[in-house]
Amino acid sequence: MQPSGANQASSQALNQESRWHSVWRMLGIVVLLWFLAQFVVLIAAGFVDGDLDGDFGPLDGTLILAGSICSAPMVLLLLAVRRPKLEHIIVAQPDAYGTQVHSLPNSRILQTPIPTTMRQYIVRSRHPLRVPIARHLWMLFLGGVIISSIAFAPLLLDSSNVFFLLLAVCVAVPAWLVGFSTPVFAWWSFSASRFQLTTNRQQGEAMLIAGMLSTFPALIINSFITPGTVLFLSGGDVSATTVEYITVIISAPVGEEICKALAVLSLSSMIDSKRRGFQVGFTVGLGFALLENLQYILFSLFAGEFVAISYGLTAIVRGIGSIPGHALWTACSGYAIGHMLEKRTFGSQPKFNTWDLVNPMTGEKAMISADPSTYLTESFLVRKSELQLPTSLPIMLGLAMFGHAFWNGSSVLISHLSLNLPPLLGLILDLTWIVILITLLWTVGRFIISAAMEEGAAQ
């Protein structure tokens, strides 16, 4: 038996640990990784585009050395933060030759009612993932965005007023933190409760961090590889606008979705089914969006007197559109990866899907599934779905790229068209298309999530 002292200590530590613990940890890590990403880009520039003119070459050792020196402490800090958490477990087992009194660490004494032998173990922490309730996070997000926008609004009247400027500066940092992080954590909370899969804290945080790290190669692709390739193939006879459009419409969807899929694959030890692959992909997409969103919200705060509009629109659109978009697209890739790993794990082994049980009172047989997922209630499903998701990785990855490209490409097209309209009509056109995109995303997303969960529960 386990001594009550050890059980109570572990239980109390878990109960006292705030639901915000993982949120604060991820918030610190994403800021650390954002600074690290800047130096990683600097290193990449040294290798690929030393003069920073957009085309390939020359090699610049100074940039490489400076980036490496500055990034080294951050890498060490990240490793220190992510070191495995260990727990001390004490087990007292009945033994006729044992004793009833045992000395424990920290000058404690354990007394058992019968003779026991004590054994001690050091194991990795397996605390379940606990995150704040999604509703509370959405309330914090909307409240923070509204209050911040109101605080920024006076700059529309007089951008040179010292008091208005001081108020904006004081509000800027909290507005930035709330604007870029809380919607991601709200969607994380949604997935943790919606997917009904047991996940420990170490796993949940690893998924988010893998998504954040996948932004590093994506940044290098979008910042150096794609522009350099376009300039090389065109002989330099191409405008900066064309390079930007190619990057946004083609390079970002293809490069980012491949990077995120590789991040999901790096977590293959966690994936044993399509449902789990979908969850891992969804969370990896959120991690990618978390670091990306940090930069978008930061840039929106440098819009001068229009900061209230820039910040409010950017935070809302990304919170309910771009962030779940990244998560859903990567979840599709994760679903196919889950199918691939599921086949690899169980394809050569016999599967016992049902057991025959006999009711001792009636003698009748009852069939039950050996898969515990079948006991999950379907109350968490938003709606029933007849959609059959593909399980081929190339198809699902292609669909992820298409969804991403359609979002980016159509947004660029509408923005280009709105430039030729009066400002008010252009703004209405932009906002209308954003509403259409978000509606499409949410509608399709409901079907995809329901299909993934239903199929996983029916296996």
Features:
single chain; 459 residues; mainly alpha; 2 domains; two-stranded antiparallel ribbon; two-stranded antiparallel sheet; 12 helices; 4 strands; globular; disordered N terminus
Question: What is the gist of this entry?
Answer:
The chain has 459 residues and is mostly helical. The protein has 12 helices and 4 strands; from the N terminus they run H-H-H-E-E-H-H-H-H-H-H-H-E-E-H-H. The strands form 2 sheets. A two-stranded antiparallel ribbon has the order 1-2. A two-stranded antiparallel ribbon has the order 3-4.
SS class? mainly alpha
Sequence stretches where pLDDT stays below 50 over 5 or more residues: 1-16, 350-382
Write out the strand line-up for the largest beta sheet, numbering strands in chain order.
1-2
Give, in order, the helices and strands.
HHHEEHHHHHHHEEHH
Overall geometry comes to globular
Helical proportion, percent range: 55-70%
How many helices? The count is 12
Average of the residue pLDDT scores: 86
Main beta-sheet annotation? 2 strands, antiparallel
Instruction: List the domain count as a whole number.
Output: 2
Query: What percent of residues are in strands?
Result: 5-15%
Number of strands: 4
Cα(first) to Cα(last) distance is 37 Å
Rounded to an integer in angstroms, the radius of gyration calculated over CA atoms is: 26 Å
